[in-house]
Design a protein that fits this description.
By secondary structure, the chain is an alpha+beta fold. It has one domain. The protein contains three helices and ten strands; from the N terminus they run αββββααββββββ. A hairpin with a 4-residue loop joins strand 6 and strand 7. It is elongated, with a radius of gyration of 37 Å. Keywords: Signal. This is Spore coat-associated protein N.
Amino acid sequence: MKNVKKALLATSLAGALVVSAGYGTYSWFTSSTQAVGTIENGTLSVNNGESISTPLFSGESFAPSQVVMGNFVTLENTGSLDQQLKVTYTGSVDKASADPYKIYYLAFKYKEKPSGDVLKDWRMAWERGFYNGNINPSMSLAKSAAPSLPEGVEVITGEVTIEEAQAMAAMAKSAEGSSKYYKVGNDKFFKLNPNQYIDIVFDVKLDQKAGNEYQGAVYSGSLNVEAKQTDQGGKFENKK
């Protein structure tokens, strides 16, 4: 009897082993790793790509030897990349040559805007210079008459003359009037870092030698600003 029980027990265990082998699972040692990366492109934007709503200047009953004082307009680097600006100014007259119109500019560059009183004092000294006929790009007169600018504020001024055009079409004429295209300032000044600003103003003077052909004439000025990144190869091409 004992032998029979042993035989049955052995058979039962053998059956259990067969079931375990048929339906069980096995584990394997495993290991894994991974790496991910992302790149966010920078943005190149001046004034968020929007037009400037402030007019450069406006006036009426303009006469020879008079000056129209312009309004400050702001250029802001609203992107995340350093940018190089190409600033050009176009002046045109509807019925005569644009030659007798003299255009002077004053620009401040900053991250923190100086007080309005400081800018006003600088502007008064600058304008006093060309009212007296001795405007000069070095601003020596303005610097001697105006207070020191806060740290980090740069200033540039000059006359937008045809000599500054630098092969940018120089002059285009028509029978009804004429236009002039100018490059303003220098490349070094018009490099903007993110969150950096330039305030620029243009004053217009009609030369005292302008004759009767300028009675009733309309002068128009236009400012165009293009931005490119400052990396090598991102330079503006000269157009002839």
